[in-house]
UniProtKB/TrEMBL annotation:
Protein name per Swiss-Prot or TrEMBL: DeoR/GlpR transcriptional regulator
Keyword check for Transcription: yes
Keywords, comma-separated and alphabetical: DNA-binding, Transcription, Transcription regulation
Domain HTH deoR-type intervals: 3-58
Alphabetical list of SUPFAM superfamilies matching this protein: NagB/RpiA/CoA transferase-like, Winged helix' DNA-binding domain
Cross-referenced SMART domains: DeoRC, HTH_DEOR
Amino acid sequence: MYQEERLISMLQFLQANHRISIENICELFDVSRDTARRDIIKLEEQGQILRTRGGAILPTLSKSVATYMARLHDETTTDSKKVIGRLAATLLHDGDYLLLDASTTVQLAAEQIRTHDHVVVTNSIDIAGILNQKQGISIHLLGGILHAEHRFIYGAKTIEMLGDYHVHKLLMGTCAITEDGITNPFEEEGYVTKEMIRCADQVILLADHTKFGIKHFHRIAGLECIDILITDREPDDAMKEILLKHEINLLVAKGD
C-alpha cells in the first residue's frame, strides 16, 4: 500500500475512533514503527491531525469558516436550512417581539415569516432588507461596526443597544454545537449573541446537521440556554441524551 493510501485510511480510522496509535498503524497496515511515525508526521504537516504521545488525534478546534454569501448559497446545506427555517417560522405568533441574529439559517427563516405585527431587532443588514419587504413588521437595526465579509453588526454600541431591549423569542444560528455548548470563530459576534440570549424569554437555535460535533474558538453559551433546537437530522444518541438532560425541545424538520 502506498503512503497516500495509508494516510486516507488513517483519517478514516480517526473519524470512526477519534484516536490512532503507532501500534494501530503497524497492525492495520503491516508497517514498521518508523514508517508509522513518518505517516503521522506527514499528516501533521498537512494540518490533518495533532500528534500525541504514541499516536495522533483529529483537531477538535475548527478554524475555517466560509463567507456569509458562500454559506448562504452552499448547495450541500441550502435545502436543509430552508426546511429548518420554514419550521422555525411556524413557531412565531402574530405580535411577537423578535430578535434575529445574523446567521444564514435565520435569514432563510426570515424569508418565510407569514405572521404579522412583529417588532424585530436584528444585527443583520440582509435580514433587515428582507423584512423591509414584508407588511406589518417594524425593524430595529442595531448600530455598530459592520463586518463586511460575514455581514453582521458588532461592537460596544451593538451590545449597549441590546441592553435596552426585551423580546419574546430569539432565533439564532450557530457555526458549531457540541455537548459543551455553542461556539463561534468570531469573538466579536459571540459577545453580541450572548447579549441577545439575555434579552429573550425563549431561545430557538437553528442548526443543520453539519454543525454538530464541531467546536470553534469562542464559547458563546452552554446548552442550558437553549429552549428549542431545530435541526434537519436526528442527532446521535449521546447528543440526544444531553439535550434531554437540559430539557431542550428537539424539533427535526423534514423536507417536502
